[in-house]
Amino acid sequence: MKILFLIFAAITLGSAFMVVTTKKMIHAAFWLITTLFGVAALYALLNAGFMAMVQIVVYVGAIAILFIFAIMLTRKEMLDSAAPLNKNWGIAALFSLLSFAGLYTLLRNWTGFSNEAPELAAGVDTITELGTALVTPDAYLLPFEVASVLLLAALIGAVYVANDAKNQQEAEK
Amino acid sequence: MIPISWYLILAAALFSIGLFGVLARKNAVAILLGVELMLNAVNINLVTFWRYNAPETVTGQVFAIIVFAVAAAEVAVGLALIISIYRNRNTIVADDLDMMKW
Lengths: 173, 102
Description:
The complex is a heterodimer. By secondary structure, chain A is an all-alpha fold.
């Protein structure tokens, strides 16, 4: 278990580092896919099989593809040869190291820091429970529906924002 | 078994890498990639705390699923904005988009 965790953690962190430093944007998107697969493997290690599947289907299958589309649509000014980082990258690195150090100190002082995972109750089907909870009015029906309305509104808004109305009217004339 | 600290440190490191990407990258799409890394770190934390503190409930996983939906919405709107900016200004370098700077 520990070996598996270390392998997937190394894959996740290494490819995440490549996402933020690699020069070509399309490569950054592919490294992001590797990171997302690593995170899905970590969910599987945490006995959250459904989360691992959702991670692959939603993140890799939808969000990463959306990123690749956006990168290809904005490719003309891609500046693949220019430096990928702006001139403040030193301060940015300092800030992110500080945030990691701060988070680590916070966690260090927490009493449950080295807790082990409790045994899962035998014969309990988490996925069935999760599915029931998402459609039970007493449980999470309302947040679930609100999330879907949010997603619908965001997608309609995205179509509206990205729609090139001016050029379309000119093309129709 | 793996202690909870390993997952929490991994999530903190992933969050910091994402923060670096958001602060340091020039390309606006790359900034959104950094935001995705940070959201993933948050989700790892949610699922970890569910597994280690309350595996008999489903709350943690439901919370993480809602975060998935919000992340998808955020990416859709963010990329639409970037494509719209690219059409009108022909650039997606964040430093060049300073027309609201006084």
